[in-house]
Design a protein that fits this description.
Blueprint: H1 5-8, H2 19-26, E1 33-38, H3 43-50, E2 71-77, E3 81-91, H4 102-114, E4 118-124, E5 130-136, E6 139-145, E7 148-153
Antiparallel strand pairs: 1-2, 2-3, 3-6, 3-7, 4-5, 5-6
Length: about 160
């Protein structure tokens, strides 16, 4: 899927999904996930570490919502598109709290990836935020509620990717 011109804006960080983006992103439904990376240090921690002593600090509790932790995740799709997902809460069940720590998120995503993982559906939450539903055998297995994202194309997988 070619990325729309709107999504190609260099460094454009999105926090809400409009109708045009929803239509463009929905074209990715059914794509196979070929690599997932979880960042050890998230964007919020990186910003906090570069703040001067005079700058206000970031409220860490915002990253630890509902008993879970917001992770930064790279999600690579077979067709050459990848997402950089920031402040992402990962739910294995919509009636349960999100996964609680980065190690748990990374381990769970890697296990799912090894067993075959597809982007089942692009959805939107009640605040027009992006939700990515990943599945196995057309059954949702993890829901990614995304705080912000970038979308780009990849030509080569990261060295850490197992093919």
């Amino acid at each position: 899927m070619p990325i729309s011109e709107k999504s190609r804006d260099e460094g454009q960080l999105y926090t809400h999904v409009d109708d045009e983006q929803f239509n463009d992103l929905s074209e990715l439904n059914g794509q196979t996930v070929v690599h997932v990376g979880v960042w050890e240090e998230g964007l919020a921690e990186s910003i906090a570490s570069t703040n001067s002593n005079n700058a206000p600090s970031i409220d860490k509790s915002a990253d630890e919502m509902e008993g879970g932790i917001a992770a930064d995740i790279d999600l690579y799709l077979r067709d050459g598109v990848y997402f950089e997902l920031y402040g992402t809460l990962c739910y294995t069940d919509l009636d349960a709290p999100p996964l609680a720590n980065l190690a748990q998120i990374e381990q769970h995503l890697q296990q799912l990836l090894e067993a075959g993982l597809k982007l089942e559906e692009i959805a939107v939450d009640e605040e027009d935020g992006l939700v990515i539903i990943l599945s196995q055998a057309k059954k949702p297995v993890i829901y990614l509620q995304v705080g912000a994202w970038l979308l780009d194309e990849w030509e080569e997988l990261p060295e850490s990717a197992s093919t």
